[in-house]
Amino acid sequence: MIGHQAEKLEELVASNTKAGPRKSKKTRFIAITSGKGGVGKSTISSNLAYTLAQRGLNVGIFDADIGLANLDVMFNVKIKKNILHVLKGEATVSDILIPITRNLILIPGESGDEILKYADMALFERFMEEAQVLDKLDVMIIDTGAGIGEHIQMFLDAADDVIVVTVPDPAAITDAYATIKTIAALRDDVGMIMNQVKSEKEAVGVFEKIKKVARANIGSDLDLTLVGKINADAKVASAIKQRALFSALYPSALATKDIEAIANKVALKLERNVLVTSNESGLSGLFRRLMDHF
User: Fold this and answer.
1) Following DSSP, what letter does each residue of 33-64 receive, concatenated?
2) Exposed/middle/buried for 193, CB within 10 Å: 0-12, 13-18, 19+?
3) What is the rounded radius of gyration, in angstroms, for the C-alpha atoms of the chain?
4) Is residue 115 part of a domain?
5) Which residues hold ATP (predicted)?
């Protein structure tokens, strides 16, 4: 059933492209994932999105962890409908978008295995048309579920960058390594963020141990890089309790400086992006990539 739908969708995408590609900014898709829950993945996703938006970039954050949807808590907003409602024809894309701050939009998602169950051709055609409102996004952060389920792998393979978040805890490190090993079957580049560390030295030390094990067991083809670290900081927990972003509430906190350093690296990659056809942009661009898996 899904295979048949995917064929129809591929035909649709091909016909849309023939209709004449519009020029647009290429949206950079960054999937942020983790081996287990509770390591701060969504906290990092939301604060990174906010920090990039504060620089004047157009940012979308896609909540692909709908089973444990907590971006609404992070941003202190109420979600009534998500992307599944759009695909079912029960809402428009504009209906579900939640503006957070200037240049930052939350896109309430749904787990990947649900998305194409409702991909009726007429609905999908309307969805792709409506999704063009997001074609001007510079970056879309995809906050995936924890673990290595098939629907999560779909998002990881579709993204330009994949970042695995972990903390310096033996169980979390083991899970992060298992996640990296799974991702390595899909792609040869993986970034890491070490969260809740005492220092840069601890972050680098733990990362180098993971990298050494990965090189020995996965192979030297894997490009594993340390994107950054977030210092353990009581202000992060304080902000979460207040349903606020630590980077907004505590601009001079150590953790905020760390997220700004990570945002710098992301922004440098964005600067290298050029004008491309709009099928690589926004929400419709993401769904075109996801369709490659069906």
Assistant:
1) EESSSSSSHHHHHHHHHHHHHHTT--EEEEE-
2) buried
3) 19
4) yes
5) 36-43
Question: Residue type for 259, please?
Answer: I
pLDDT-above-90 percentage for the chain: 51
Instruction: Say if residues 161 and 30 touch (Cβ distance below 8 Å).
Output: yes
- State the number of CA atoms in the 13 A half-sphere of 199 facing the CB: 3
8 annotated as belonging to a binding site for a ligand: no
Q: Is 37 annotated as a binding residue?
A: yes
Residue 198 counted as domain residue = yes
pTM: 0.85
Residue 42 known to bind ligand: yes
Residue 41 marked ligand-binding: yes
Phi-psi region of 16 (alpha: psi -120 to 50; beta: other; left: phi over 0): alpha
CATH of the domain at 175: 3.40.50.300
Q: Is residue 27 part of a domain?
A: yes
> Residue 40, annotated ligand binder?
yes
Instruction: Convert the pLDDT of each residue in 182-191 to its tens digit.
Output: 999 999 999 9
First to last CA, the chain: 10
**Separation of alpha carbons 16 and 3, rounded Å:** 20
Number of domains composing the chain: 1
Tell me the residue range of the domain where 78 lies: 2-289
Side-chain-facing half-sphere of 133: CA atoms under 13 Å: 14
CA-to-CA distance for 48 and 41, rounded, in angstroms?
11
pLDDT digits (tens, 9 = 90+) for 122-150: 666 777 777 887 888 999 999 987 776 76
